[in-house]
Design goal:
Number of helices: 13
Structural class: mainly alpha
Order of helices and strands: HHHHHHHHHHHHH
Number of strands: 0
Strand content: under 5%
Largest sheet: none
Mean pLDDT: 90
Low-confidence stretches: none
Radius of gyration: 21 Å
């Protein structure tokens, strides 16, 4: 059985599978220097990780939805109504308090991040012969890799990092429960390793991309949330492992493989030169969005003198959140396949 690559071994390996391993290696190699690097280059770290990867990957969804004529026709009602619904829901949530707004958005974001790893696992197992048992085991493993670190976060002592704000998640410190969950996590990891070895020997086949994405998920989520207690480490592992593979998936699966007739105006982002146009577009629109956030809401990196928009936050914050809120929800529809 051939390996179920999305594109090719080299491109999948470099852009989708490698980021988790690369960033984990960087964290271990330079862990002692990360605090110094973060203090000295905080602006550039913010610009690269938050703006050019995290925010940019949200807008990559445009190239599978709004910018694709056939896709827009097929889902026109959803694509028009959803942003409006997200805006209205955002206003309602923010009117209940900023803590409520960011908390709800954080839980939705976590679910989105978890489901992305599940989605990649399903993509890379699409050619396998499946049974109800094998599907249940695969689901158990990928959800263990992602859910346990989040439960550890919820039930352990305060961490040095946040998702959006300090009060995003309901926390209940319980070291006994953390210990029990840790043992269960360890047993499932051992089970996964032994089952993979047994299955590979029995079937004389080892699914390289599927097992690589599962292993990378274990590494990035465990070391980003459980093992290290560092804001920069969490951001590195969380953002890079999520954002870069998503951007790559959009380009490789939705642009590079489609014909000129299907792409229409998007032919401008096809090929080597087009790839850089694609990336440049994402970087520019991401920078513009974050600049607007900084000026009207955060005032941390950029600000206008003598400007106060605090009375407009109940409208501005939900408005500026429409792209990411829509992205979180929309992703649950656009990747579904039989």
């Amino acid at each position: 059985m051939a390996q179920p690559w999305i594109d090719k071994a080299k491109t999948d390996g470099f852009f989708i599978l490698a980021p988790s391993f690369f960033v984990t290696a960087v964290v271990f190699l330079f862990h002692d220097k990360l605090n110094v690097i973060e203090a000295k280059y905080s602006f550039y770290i913010w610009l690269f990780l938050i703006v050019f990867i995290d925010v940019a990957h949200v807008y990559a969804t445009l190239f599978k939805t709004y910018f694709v004529r056939e896709e827009f026709k097929k889902r026109s009602k959803l694509l028009i109504v959803l942003p409006i619904v997200c805006f209205v829901v955002g206003i309602i949530l923010f009117s209940l308090g900023s803590v409520v707004f960011w908390s709800v958005l954080a839980y939705i974001a976590v679910f989105h991040f978890i489901r992305q790893q599940y989605g990649f696992m399903r993509l890379y197992s699409r050619k396998e012969v499946k049974t109800n048992c094998s599907v249940a085991i695969d689901n158990l493993i990928i959800y263990t890799a992602t859910v346990y670190p989040m439960l550890y976060w919820f039930f352990s002592s305060p961490r040095a990092f946040i998702w959006f704000t300090e009060k995003d998640f309901i926390r209940f410190e319980n070291q006994l429960l953390v210990g029990i969950l840790g043992w269960i996590y360890g047993l499932i990891v051992i089970f996964y390793i032994l089952r993979t070895i047994y299955k590979s020997i029995k079937e004389r086949y080892f699914n390289i991309p599927k097992n690589t994405i599962i292993t990378g998920t274990f590494l990035s989520w465990y070391f980003g949330i459980v093992y290290f207690n560092s804001d920069l480490v969490f951001t590195l592992l969380n953002v890079v492992s999520h954002g870069i593979p998503y951007i790559a998936l959009i380009y490789l699966n939705e642009i590079d493989k489609k014909s000129e007739r299907d792409l229409g105006i998007l032919n401008y982002v096809k090929g080597v030169r087009g790839f850089f146009v694609f990336i440049a577009f994402l970087l520019m629109i991401a920078f513009f969005e974050e600049y607007v956030w900084e000026v009207f809401v955060w005032n941390e990196q950029f600000s206008w003198d003598n400007s106060d928009f605090s009375n407009w936050q109940v409208f501005l914050v939900p408005l500026f959140t429409i792209p990411q809120f829509t992205h979180y929800i929309l992703d649950g529809f656009i990747w579904k396949s039989k």
